[in-house]
Amino acid sequence: xxxxxxxxxxxxxxxxxxxxxxxxxxxxxxxxxxxxxxxxxxxxxxxxxxxxxxxxxxxxxxxxxxxxxxxxxxxxxxxxxxxxxxxxxxxxxxxxxxxxxxxxxxxxxxxxxxxxxxxxxxxxxxxxxxxxxxxxxxxxxxxxxxxxxxxxxxxxxxxxxxxx
Length: 164
Known about the structure:
The protein is α+β, with helices and mostly antiparallel strands. It is built from 3 helices and 9 strands.
């Protein structure tokens, strides 16, 4: 597990019910994020109720973790509101529930002001268990409001991430 105390913790957005990062969602992952200004990280343990088969984490949960860490990377490092356009996941090694994991997101390429490609990995200790690549739409706050991706309240709630 990556030692995250040396990195800057990103604000926790506790006022929504996001399955991945919301702390008010009792069934969720409650992910927290840290950055070294080049990557975004999260340490977590998949709880037993999110198993797929026996004691393995469900593939959808692994995909969710990767999507979330890549999303927070784009939001925090590119200072944009995002929407996932595509995501591909490679499942390399089994991920067991109850195992400490580190998820990491990086920017691979900023294609233009409206699109970026991100990379995500999940490790247990130093072993890579899954990796992903995603294309994300990058939206200004005005565009996100016009497209009804966010409303004024959601925009105000997400503002701390732009200033982090």
